[in-house]
User: Fold these one by one.
Assistant:
Number 1:
Amino acid sequence: MAFTLFRFKEWQKKYKELQENVVYTQQIAQIGTWTRDYETKSLFITDELCRILGCNPFEFKGDSEIFMKHVHEGDRQWVQEYMSKVQQGSDYDIEYRIVTESGEHKIVRERTKTIYDQEKPIRTFGVMQDITEKKRMENDLRELGDVYIRAQKVSGVGSFKYDAQNNLSVWSDEVCRI
């Protein structure tokens, strides 16, 4: 009996550590998760998802209406269409805009996986990642590329890159023009 109790305590400790690791991983990666149970009609979301949405986890009642109010007005209709497709058997991987309760605008990526029992959806798992900073960096990089192209054009200087390993060269439009 004592050995079994000892093993149980060890398993409890390991389980708690695993739960903490999941929480830390979600915080570091800025990923929140949610689970929709179709039988109980309940929606469970993690604290990290609440942080992304800017809502209080203690005030969230598992209502998808509350969740949808965070979706940017310009994206709300098509996001709702994707979400309703899940109940018809389609998972999704989409990016859209949200607005937090404090008015902060963010861009998120959301992916889902639905579990079925005899072709009937039982549960959907969703993962939402805050990709706002990634999108800002992509936009900044695009803008820098545009500035670089304009600078070459104005100065009459072109550029090229040669990849010796693949024997491939890439010339800018300005080199071709010169």
Number 2:
Amino acid sequence: MPDHHAKWQQCREVHEVIRVAPLEPEDLAACLALDADAMGGFWSEAQWREELTATGRLRLGARCGEDPLLLGAATAWRVLDELHLTLVLVRSAWRRQGIARRLITALLERAREEGAAHATLEVAGRNTAARGLYGELLFREAGRRRGYYRNGDDALILWRRLD
């Protein structure tokens, strides 16, 4: 088994470029491991399999150089001229390194190239770190689903234009 911790240290020390690339069905196990680390297994194996194989989806992963360990992932659905970001995950040891920003920016750029005019997402009202990042990326609150999450937190609906 590779020593991923040593690779993380090396990647951080030399500021190796984080590689962002499309996720493929072969990345299922890596996505499940990332999800377990980042969100405690938020999506099931069936949900990940669907996300990695369905049409009309954009899905990107971030890795350190050629290391197979998935550091982050972002997925989105394309519906007509709208991009709906469905999930943004970053491995807990790699948070606040700019990975989520790179993944989201790459998704927005790709969607714009494919003709999307708007992007939307939902974020937990108490998730101040994510809300701050989305605000920096020009997302603005467009609505609220009160008590949406199991813990009673509201879901904020954020929106932005892609032009």
